[in-house]
Write a structure and sequence with these properties.
Layout (H helix, E strand, L loop, with lengths): L6 H26 L14 H8 L7 E3 L5 H7 L3 H8 L23 E2 L8 H14 L6 E6 L6 H12 L4 E7 L2 E2 L2 E2 L20 E5 L3 H16 L5 E6 L17 H8 L3 H11 L5 H23 L13 E3 L2 E3 L1
Parallel strand pairs: 1-2, 1-3, 3-4, 4-8, 7-8
Antiparallel strand pairs: 5-6, 9-10
Helix pairs in contact: 1-2, 1-3, 1-9, 1-10, 2-3, 2-7, 4-10, 5-6
């Protein structure tokens, strides 16, 4: 059974989960209204994964995300204001309007701009882990990927490299049962992706991805191993995305009973109830946190809509060309 952390951490984790949900809900409606450009891949229902894994890391610990990065970014410390500005393609966005929804990040808080190539960040994370080891740092790096990415060649190459060199990498598979619209049942003959860890000689652990405390405790074990030089861990977080793969996905491939069962285990509602049941927080305290987050989200939208568009010449800034970098 998971142990409730001390008060400030517990309510901080709830605030982070609630912020992720409300941010993604807001941008969903902004897209539907046609107010915001581009497209989105949302992570409703996977907030416990992001927050449980990332809450205790420092800005000098790195994180590499996927084409569904918003929850990971916010949980790691990218400001919601810079995220919202990025979604409006503004120059004060976290990637100066160049990234959009699938490529957000902020290296100042240890977030590498997200990689939309399925499985693409796995070997990159191994490379970052190697750099930490060569520099004799005790930092760690997290690689997030989905169940579909576990069948990519990059999964084998990245994890095997990290394993043989005992690199400080935590590989986190968010198994939400579907790679886009393809059920995991049609792409794997094993019950758990974490079982593959044994073939690389590293620990693998299956975790309830909708229980933020269980995720956090598993992450603590993995980080302790990594910081002590004992190498990587593969965590498989069993979770479920509430929306479809992207905003155009109506989820017709999902069974109604399956959806009902998973939606009943909404990680935010589960953790909110646990905070109240254990007396860790009061209804009034939680309501105050939620109201403050709601206000911050609306303020970020206002900021983004009134922020400057990038100047044409900014397209040449912060990019590599002719073997050099344009400052």
């Amino acid at each position: 059974m998971s142990t409730m952390p001390e008060h400030s951490k517990a309510v901080g984790m709830y605030e982070s989960m609630y912020l992720i949900r409300k941010y993604e809900e807001r941008i969903y409606y902004l897209f539907l209204e046609g107010t915001m450009p581009g497209s989105i891949h949302q992570s409703h229902g996977q907030e416990a994964s992001a927050v449980g894994v990332l809450y205790d890391l420092s800005p000098s610990d790195y994180m590499a995300s996927t084409h569904r990065p918003a929850g990971h970014d916010l949980a790691k410390g990218v400001s919601v204001e810079s995220m919202m500005c990025e979604m409006f393609a503004k120059s004060n966005g976290c990637c100066h309007g160049k990234g959009g929804a699938m490529h957000t990040g902020d290296i100042d808080v240890g977030v590498i701009p997200a990689n939309a190539i399925v499985g693409g960040n796995i070997p990159i994370a191994a490379g970052i882990g190697l750099s930490f080891k060569l520099q004799k740092k005790d930092n760690v790096v997290v690689s997030f990927f989905g169940d579909g990415a576990s069948n990519e060649g990059a999964f084998h190459e990245g994890i095997n490299g990290a394993a043989i060199w005992d690199l400080p990498v935590i590989f986190v598979c968010e198994n939400n049962l579907y790679g886009a619209s393809t059920s995991i049942k049609t792409t794997l003959k094993i019950e758990n992706i974490a079982d593959r860890a044994a073939s690389y000689g590293i620990p693998g652990e299956v975790v309830d991805g909708n229980d933020v405390l269980a995720v956090n405790e598993a992450m603590t074990r993995a980080v302790d191993r990594a910081r002590k030089g004992e190498g990587p861990t593969l965590l498989e977080l069993k979770t479920y995305r509430i929306p479809g793969h992207s905003r155009s996905d109506a989820c017709a491939y999902r069974d109604d009973a399956e959806e009902e069962a998973w939606f009943a285990r909404d990680p935010i509602k589960l953790f909110r109830s646990k905070l109240l049941e254990t007396g860790t927080a009061t209804e009034e305290e939680i309501a105050k946190i939620e109201a403050a987050v709601d206000e911050r989200i609306e303020a970020s939208v206002e900021l983004a809509m009134n922020s400057p568009d990038p100047r044409p010449e900014e397209a040449l800034e912060n990019v590599y060309w002719d073997g050099g970098v344009q400052a």
